[in-house]
Every structure is written in structure tokens, then in C-alpha cells.
Automatic annotation (TrEMBL):
UniProt binding sites for Mg(2+): 136
The organism's place on the tree of life at top rank: Bacteria
Chain residues that bind substrate: 135
Reactions it catalyzes: 4-hydroxy-4-methyl-2-oxoglutarate = 2 pyruvate; oxaloacetate + H(+) = pyruvate + CO2
Its biological purpose: Catalyzes the aldol cleavage of 4-hydroxy-4-methyl-2-oxoglutarate (HMG) into 2 molecules of pyruvate. Also contains a secondary oxaloacetate (OAA) decarboxylase activity due to the common pyruvate enolate transition state formed following C-C bond cleavage in the retro-aldol and decarboxylation reactions.
Protein name: Putative 4-hydroxy-4-methyl-2-oxoglutarate aldolase
GO molecular function, one term: oxaloacetate decarboxylase activity
Length: 247
């Protein structure tokens, strides 16, 4: 299969982060893609695989100025962005992207909230990963926005953080991330797969996953447990056979 990032997503459909980690170890990429365990899914059961869309930020140098009315406070972001240069993301997100943000060591700032997160998801992004904070977390959980962050924040953008550029090589959670790399997350954390080894890693990871599913299926039977989707290896085998991964 040609290494086109958005097509490669189909190879990762059923894979767990741990399967991919084992496969990367197996080809000598020890710990290369493991994003810091501090960067976690916001809510349990979250799972996504997609193509990295990178965002590089730096801490703001200019403080936010005092605002004179409730209406100005409500419109604080618009007031800030009119004064402080920032690049536009409009038209850059493709279906299947994972937005990955390097906050440049900025302090507590809830860059991703219930509105702008939904905006990038509505444009086709399948996940968001930031080494910073998110806010409005109750709403993000209710909306099931797939976001992984270092923590839950309370503050807003003005006077705290600036977006510098999109589409450059960045660092996030101790891992280098380039546009086009494959990024995945589940309850075990976040992992980044370099595009140049993404096909090889996926093929090995499929083998790891299926071996685990078959072994646990036997344990389920021995324990008298009803089978669930995590041991339905026949369905996964059929899927990957259809992709030509299995003979």
C-alpha cells in the first residue's frame, strides 16, 4: 500500500495504542512515539487514529489590557485577535486530521474549549492532542469531543498564548510530530507513528492484536465469560484480510 497518510488510517482502525507500541519496539523504535503519560484523554473510552495537523504556539509577550464593559469582556477574544497577529486555520483541516499542539511551555491557558474544539471537529478532525490545557471540560465530555490534554484549565487565550504557525515540525509530550505522521489515542494514552514506518508498524501491530484477541478468547471460554467485541478476532481478521494485510 502506498504511504498516503489519509489512506493509511484504515490500517489502524482496530489497533490499540499498546499494539502499535509493541510493533514500534519490534522494529527498534523504542519509546520514540510515546507521548508523555501526563497527556491523557479527557474522558474514558475515547479512541481515534488520524493524520497529524501541527500547531506551534509560544507564550504571549503582551499582557491583555483591561476591558471596560461586560460586552467587551464577552468579546475579549475578538478584541485580542484584532490587535495580535495570528494565522488563520480556515480551510486547512481535512477529514481525518488530528490537531496536535505544541504550546511552547505556556502556562495555564484553556486554549481548547467547548466552542473551538467543536469547530475543528465539524471540519473533519477526528481528535485533538495538546501538551497544554483544555477548559469547559464538562461540556467537552458531554459533546464527546475527542481531546487529549495535559490538564484542565480555567483561563482564556488573550494575554497568555499566541499561535505562530501551522504545518511545521513540533514537539508534543516529548515526541517529535511532523505533518502527516499517524497519531492515535485510547485509554492507555497517545502515540505518534512516523509516516515512513507507518505501514510496517501497522502490519506488525495487526499480528500483535490478533494474537492477543485469540488468547483472551480462550481465557473467556475457560472463565465462562460471554464474548465481547474485544475478543471477536474473526471480524478483525476479515477486515484486514479485505485490506490484503492478511493472506
Amino acid at each position: 500500500m502506498e504511504a498516503e497518510p489519509f489512506e493509511l488510517r484504515q490500517l489502524y482502525r482496530y489497533l490499540r495504542v499498546v499494539d502499535v507500541s509493541d510493533a514500534m519496539d519490534g522494529i527498534g523504535y523504542f519509546d520514540r512515539g510515546l507521548v508523555s503519560p501526563q497527556i491523557r484523554p479527557l474522558w474514558p473510552g475515547m479512541r481515534f487514529w488520524g493524520v497529524a495537523f501541527t500547531v506551534r504556539c509560544v507564550p504571549a509577550r503582551r499582557p491583555m489590557w483591561a476591558l471596560g464593559s461586560t460586552q467587551e469582556i464577552i468579546k475579549a477574544h475578538g478584541i485580542w485577535f484584532r490587535e495580535v497577529e495570528h494565522p488563520s486555520m480556515e480551510g486547512l483541516i481535512r477529514p481525518g486530521h488530528v490537531v496536535v499542539m505544541d504550546t511552547g511551555g505556556a502556562g495555564e491557558v484553556g486554549f481548547w474549549g467547548s466552542a473551538n474544539s467543536l469547530e475543528v471537529i465539524s471540519q473533519g478532525a477526528v481528535g485533538i492532542v495538546t501538551d497544554g490545557y483544555c477548559r469547559d471540560t464538562r461540556e467537552l465530555e458531554l459533546e464527546r469531543v475527542p481531546i487529549c490534554a495535559r490538564g484542565r484549565g480555567r483561563t482564556i487565550i488573550p494575554g497568555r498564548i499566541e499561535v505562530v504557525e501551522y504545518g511545521s515540525r513540533i514537539g508534543c509530550g516529548g515526541v517529535q510530530v511532523r505533518p502527516g505522521d499517524i497519531v492515535g489515542a485510547d485509554d492507555d494514552g497517545v502515540i505518534v507513528v512516523p509516516l515512513e514506518v507507518a505501514v510496517e508498524v501497522a502490519r506488525h501491530a495487526v499480528g500483535v492484536l490478533l494474537a492477543d484477541m485469540r488468547a483472551r478468547r480462550r481465557l473467556y471460554e475457560r472463565a465462562g465469560l460471554a464474548p465481547d467485541e474485544t475478543v471477536d478476532h474473526q471480524a478483525v481478521e476479515a477486515y484486514y484480510r479485505g485490506l490484503g494485510v492478511l493472506s
